[in-house]
Every structure is written in C-alpha cells, then in structure tokens.
Amino acid sequence: MSHMNGYVQEASGQAKSHRERAVDCPGDESSLVKSPHSSAHMERIQHYQEELKKRREEDSRGKHDIDPNASLRLKKLSQNPKVGIDNPTFEGKEKVTKDTFLQDPVAGELRGEEGRTELAELLQALKWAHHCLTDAQSQQDVELIMQLLAKEDFKNAYTIYIAVSQQMTRVIPTSPLTAQAEDLCQEVQKILQSSQHKEGLELNALLTNPHLQAHDSVAGQEMAEESLTQYIGETVKLVRLEKARDTPLGATVRNDMDSVLVSRVVKGGAAEKSGLLTEGDEILEINGTSIRGKHVNEVHDLLQQMQGTLTFLLIPSSQIKPAPHRQTVMHVRAYFDYDPSDDPFVPCRELGLSFQKGDILHVISQDDPNWWQAYRDGDEDNQPLAGLIPGKSFQQQRETLKKTITDRSPEHQGRLWYAKKNKRQKKKSTTTLSRNIDYDDILTYEEMSLYHQPANRKRPIGLIGPTNSGHDELRRRLLSIEPEKFAVAVPHTTRNSRIHERNGREYHFVSRPGFETDLAAGKFIESGEYEKNLYGTSTDSVRHVINSGRICMLCLHTRSLQVLRSSNLKPYVIFIAPPSQERLRSLLASDGKTPKPEELKEVIEKAREMEQNFGHFFDATIVNMDPDQAFHELRRLIDKLDTEPQWVPTSWLC
Ligand code: 5GP
To answer: What pLDDT is attached to residue 326?
Structure first.
C-alpha cells in the first residue's frame, strides 16, 4: 500500500509513522514562554546546526558522486571574472563546498565571508604581533592561536557564532525590560533633583533625553512583531504563535525517519493565519522540548498538554515556497456520503470533514489534489477550521475500485454512488448531457454556483415522489388557486383529438413518426405509452410556459431527472415524502382510499429508495404530514426563489 495520498509509504515499513497527526493546543494564555535565548538554548541551536551541516554535507557528497558536471561547473564558475574566484585553489573550492550547509547558499556565502574576513584580519594582526614579539614563549603562544584559527572546524564554528550573535544583538536590545519605564524615569528624576554629583547630573540629562521614550515605543512595537519569526543563521527558524482561545492551531505533522515535519497547514487555524509554519518545515523543538525522534502521536499528545503561546524551533523547508496566490473558492455539491472515521485513507482523521450526499461544500484549498480543504455550507461561521475531504479524482479512483468490486455482488447492484444509464442516455450523454454528470459514470462532486432567477423567467418546479405521496394533489391545488401564476406544459400525444379538445390546449396532437423522431432527438423530458398511443412532455412545451412568465409545474419521474437537468430549463426539484405508515393510512382514508398495509409499506419503501438513489438531485424535501402544511411549505419554497439565490450546477450558467 504505497499510497495515493503520498503520506502512507509502506515500502519503508513505516506506514504508521508516515501518517499525519493533527497538532493543537487549547488556548490558555497562562504559561507564556520566556525568552528562548538562554545560553543552553543557543547551545542546542548550535548543536542542531552542526547536525544539519553534517546531514547536508553527506547529502551534497552523495550529489557530487552522481553529478559528473559538478567539478566542471565549479571550474567554469571560477573562470568567471564577475564571480571573482580568480584562483580556483583549495581555498576557493572549500568555500563552495563547506558553506553549503547554510540554507541559502548566497546569503550563507556572504555571512561565511564576513566571519572569514574577520578571521583573516585577526590572523594578519597575530602575524604582526608575532613579528613584533621578541621572547620565544610569547611567539609560541601566538603560533598556537594562529594554528587554531587556521583550522576548518574553528572557521565553521566561528561562522555560526557570527550568525547567532548578529541575530542576538538585533533582537535582544529591542526587548523592553519594563512596562513602566516612564514612571520609573520620573521617580529617578525626582531623586536626582537635589543631586549635585557629576554622575547624577549626567543621568538626569540622559533620562530627559526624548530618544529614550522613542526607544521604548519602538521596542514595544518590535516586541509585538517579534512574536512572529526570527531566523537564527540561515538554518534555524524560531516561530512564536500567539493562539487565541477559540482558534485551533490547525496543522498536521508526519514522521520522516527521525524528523517530525509539518505536513499540512489547514485553513482557518492559527498556523495558517500567522503564515509562519510551512509544509515541510522540520520541528526541532516546541516550547523548549526536543521533538526529533518523537512519533507524531507523541507530538500530538505533547501539544495537547501545552497551553498558550507556542514557540517552535524549525528548520525551514528547503522546498521553494510558491508565491502566495489568492485561492478561489470552489463550491460543490457532494454526490456521496463521507465519514472520515470510516476512511482508512484520510491522512488525518481528526481533521476529516463528514458530509452527506447533496450537501453543498465550499472547497477553499486544492493544494493537495488528494485531500481538499473545505467547509460545509452554513458551517463557516461556527467552524473556524476547514476540514479534509477526498479530492475529486482520488474519490473517483476509489469509487471505480469499489464499483468493480460491488458490481460483482448482485446485492449491491442497485447502489447509487454511481449513475447507471440506459442505452439511450449513454448515447445521448456524448452529445447533450452535462459533462459533470458524464464522467466515467462516477458521481463525486459537481461544481455549483449561486443563481437568482430573473423575475420574467421563473424556474420550473418539479414535484417528485412515490404514488400516493400527494405530489399530484399539491400541483393541482396550486394550479386551481392561481392559474395566472402557475401552469402545466401542454403534453404531446399520438392519439386523435376528441371533439372538445383543441390542438395546443389539451395536447399537441402529432403523428407517431413525428413523435418518435422528436423522442430520438431528445426533445422529451419524459414519455410513455398508453393504449397504443404515445404521450410525452417536451422541453419546448416547458420553455413555452417559462417564456409566458408563469411558473411551470411538473410532476416528475425519476427517469426524467437527468434529462431535465441537462435541458437548461434550470428546474427546482422538490421531493414530496410520505409521512409514517399510520399517518399515510389516515390521510388516504380521508380521501376515501383504503390501501392494504403492504401497499402503504411499499409507498414508504419506494420513497426511501428514491431518496437514496436520487436525493442528490433534490433541491428541497417536504414531508407530507398534513396537506395544508405541505401546501404552505410548497408556497414558501417557491416564493423563496424570488428572494434568495439558490445553488445550481455551474454548467447550467455557462
Ligand atoms: P387521455 O388520452 O385519456 O387524455 O390520457 C390517457 C393517459 O395518458 C392518462 O393516464 C394520462 O395520465 C396519460 N398522459 C397524459 N399526458 C401524459 C404525458 O405527458 N406523459 C405521459 N407519460 N402520460 C400522459
């Protein structure tokens, strides 16, 4: 199982350790981290840097072994007058190879250069001193020092020292020692008022100097900014995250041999908001606790115990970070149920987002094509952290796999996480069906957009439900109460017209061959045969009602759904679900019907099946507990289309 998501690599025999773990900590500000620049801390940093240097030297040695052009390139570089290595001697070569442990080779070279220049100057001074000294003992002492300075290990250690001390001197003086500097100042000035001592006068002058106040306010600002990030040399980064009480950290870690790496930064968490943790950063320490060699589960547990400000000591990812770009949010409708607790592939279960078929999801990151980051519609406000959902092609891959397996078992053949099509639909799909639906028959997500119906072109309303769920009665009631607002599409038939019927009013009377040609051309939403005559509703008839400014009321079969969706009529589909068996019995009884218990059961079973297999195509559901209540709910939903935009497949708007 060397796996699709790239995190599970069983080849190394460490499948578990390659999984990610969400790391987080509850936001309690009580244990703020004190200044991390203790001498022990700096020693540890130096240790990390030396280790890193070794690792990188090993790496680069390996690279040189397999790179036959490396020495050629070096030679070429040395011959370039702009680079200024005018003598490709051992000295020049050393500079290139030995300094490669620095993260940024250019900056590293410069900083290394700085340390080496100082050393060269010191050597010069010692040579001069040696020359001036007359006694042999002193000359020997100076020689010893000169030998030490010439050692490569010493030169490297000195380079690190320079880098660290530069950072220290830049940061430490800006830290204010007290928050009441001004009060203290005034107090001391009062005491000094009567002093005639030279030192007292001098101190008084210093304390009245406006530069001091300026320093305090600048230092205050620097302290606030300092909670962000500091580079210690080029190799180690110190990151401090101030995490608000209600904001989770939102990062995952994974093991890579002994290292613990930031694996994923989730949108909406403190880590993402700060922009300071990057995928691929190696965590060396958290709040002074060494992390190398720990399993991700230990890191998770450790962070759970920690509270408040978090200080990370990191080796920044060596991967080049792509320039930050504004992510565009993609809205999708899910065509499958997803439960991360039941998914062995989710890289981090705690961060998985569960959803149900038909849910609208806002996908905010597809950086990892296998695991997108998303919010469920409506959850964005109370759920700060995005969740992981399977990416489209990843899901398609495994659904294909599942399909292959379940297709073989007869009891699973009706399962609807993929859409079966009949021969005619399959043929049609190549020409007119939406490409979102026709993707290897696997339905995963469909991209959605908000659509607000124009006042003069109302969306047709499709009512769907099993026989006896009451959808037909609801439609009739609407048509009879407001005929000027609601209308039906005039159907086509091949039967002869009756005496009172007018072509285009009750039916469009057409010849059988004409009907069949239109049917083959996909012009009907639905059709059927009754007593050797064909009947059907055409898309043109529906369009005619829409163009008249009225709302077209349709009663749909499930088989009409796909055709209707690809017709560009933008239907709004409402599922009319039956109530409980007992309630259904009493409703039908009040209409003078006396269904058998098994017939009632069948209605409910049919509704369940429809919902399971086509539920993702329904825009709304009304449970018909009471005809009046259901009618009011239907009116409310229809009116809402005038006042609120609705999610529709993006392909409808192209
Ligand atoms: P009639 O010929 O008496 O008007 O209708 C005969 C049957 O055709 C009725 O059961 C009616 O429901 C059905 N029918 C009428 N219009 C349509 C239609 O557009 N499509 C389908 N499938 N059946 C229809």
So the answer is: 58
The pLDDT of residue 242 is 74
Ligand 1 center–CA 167 separation, angstroms:
85
The whole-number pLDDT of residue 343 equals 92
CA angle at residue 137 from 134 to 142, to 5 degrees? 85
* Structure token pair of residue 259: 């290292």
Q: Is the CB of 495 under 6 A from ligand 1?
A: yes
Please state the pTM of the whole predicted model.
Answer: 0.64
Q: Would you state the pLDDT for residue 116?
A: 72
Confidence (pLDDT) at 243:
66
Residue with tokens 């002869």, as numbered in its chain: 496
State in Å, rounded, how far the first CA of the chain is from the last one.
41
The pLDDT assigned to 89 comes to 31
The runs of H, that is alpha helices, within 67-180 are: 70-79, 90-98, 105-132, 136-150, 152-171
Rg (CA), the chain: 38
Chain centroid to Cα 383, Å, comes to 14
pLDDT at 217: 60
Contact between 411 and 396 under an 8 Å Cβ cutoff? The reply is no
Which residue has a Cα nearest atom 19 of ligand 1?
Answer: 536
What is the C-alpha to C-alpha distance for residues 265 and 273, in angstroms, rounded to an integer? Answer: 10
Residues 6 or more apart from 486 whose CB is under 8 A from it? 478, 479, 550, 551, 552, 553
- The residue among 633, 613, 615 whose CA lies nearest residue 623 is 633
Using CA atoms, how far apart are residues 184 and 34, in angstroms rounded to an integer? 23
State the distance from the centre of ligand 1 to the C-alpha of 553, rounded, in angstroms.
16
pLDDT in the model for residue 12:
31
Whether 93 is in the pocket of ligand 1, judged by its Cβ within 6 Å, is: no
Domains of the chain: 19-33+223-315 (2.30.42.10), 40-57+65-168 (no CATH), 185-219 (no CATH), 332-446 (2.30.30.40), 453-653 (3.40.50.300)
**pLDDT attached to residue 382:** 78
- Residue ranges of the chain whose pLDDT lies below 70: 1-18, 24-39, 41-42, 56, 59-115, 165-180, 210-234, 243-247, 320-327, 407-441
Angle, helix 198-207 to helix 181-192, in steps of 10 degrees: 150
Cα angle 401-13-57, degrees, rounded to a multiple of 5? 120
What pLDDT sits at residue 47? Answer: 76
Residue type present at position 520:
A
Ligand 1 atom closest to Cα of residue 537: 19
Ligand 1 pocket: which of 476, 493, 503, 508 to mutate (most atoms within 8 A of CB):
493
Task: Give CA–CA dist 609/601, Å, rounded.
Answer: 12
The pLDDT of residue 441 is 63
Q: What is the pLDDT of residue 177?
A: 59
Q: Which of 533, 535, 555, 563 to mutate to test the pocket of ligand 1 (most atoms within 8 A of CB)?
A: 535
- Rounded to the nearest integer, the mean pLDDT of the chain is 77
**Mutual orientation of helices 152-171 and 136-150 as an angle, nearest 10°?**
80
Task: Yes or no: say if 412 and 19 are a contact pair by the CB < 8 Å rule.
Answer: no
* Phi-psi map region of 137: left, alpha, beta (phi>0 left; psi -120 to 50 alpha): alpha
Q: What is the pLDDT of residue 435?
A: 39
Mode of pairing for the β-strands spanning 445-451 and 492-493: unpaired
Distance 50 CA to ligand 1 centre (A): 85
> Residue 285 belongs to what H/E stretch?
strand 282-286
Residue 339: burial class (beta carbons within 10 Å; 0-12, 13-18, 19+): exposed
Q: Are 507 and 492 in contact (CB under 8 A)?
A: yes
